[in-house]
Design goal:
single chain, 161 residues, alpha+beta, Alpha-D-Glucose-1,6-Bisphosphate, Chain A, domain 4, eight-stranded antiparallel β-sheet, 8 strands, globular
Length: 161
């Protein structure tokens, strides 16, 4: 399984997940740059994602929803703040309503995804910084660690295809 560590720091308001993949950095980067590939691994396996917008440029936005086994849709949005191709990207991440508009009373996090080559593969470090301890606690209670781990652990299968 790619996920090798999950660390929550309530003082720093962070959630950090570290994973290692047996594919080169450029290939792992492609998963996040291409919305059709991202759909195959964003969200837990039982909640497949559909990206209706993915402008992977600084200032660009993504809008997506995940569909539950019962057909219920859960929306989300990203706003890209920095992109250093194949090395890292930073984005705001929030919840969205049925029309994929931001939900103001749900937590927003600032995420930095970093990729570095290791022994012919890639180490990815996913760090989310939350606006408040309550926001971090809310997503933890919603199962963000379990859902993110399940999602990230799907990437190896996609990379092997």
């Amino acid at each position: 399984m790619p996920v090798i560590d999950v660390t929550t720091d309530t003082d720093a308001l962070t959630l950090t997940i570290t994973a290692e993949f047996s594919a080169p950095v450029e290939r792992v980067w492609e998963v996040y740059a291409n919305p059709r590939q991202l759909e195959k691994v964003w969200g837990p396996p039982q909640f497949p994602a559909t990206f209706v917008q993915h402008d992977f440029v600084v200032g660009g936005h993504s809008k997506y929803y995940m569909t539950s086994p019962e057909g219920e849709k859960f929306g989300g949005w990203w706003r890209f703040e920095a992109i250093d191709p194949t090395t890292s990207f930073t984005f705001q991440d929030g919840f969205a309503d049925a029309d994929l508009n931001p939900v103001d009373d749900m937590p927003v996090s600032k995420n930095n995804y970093r990729f570095e080559p290791i022994d012919g593969g890639t180490r990815a470090v996913y760090t989310g910084v939350f606006e408040s301890a309550e926001g971090l606690q809310k997503v933890l209670e919603m199962g963000v660690v379990e859902g993110s781990t399940a999602a990230i652990n799907q990437i190896d299968e996609l990379l092997a295809a």
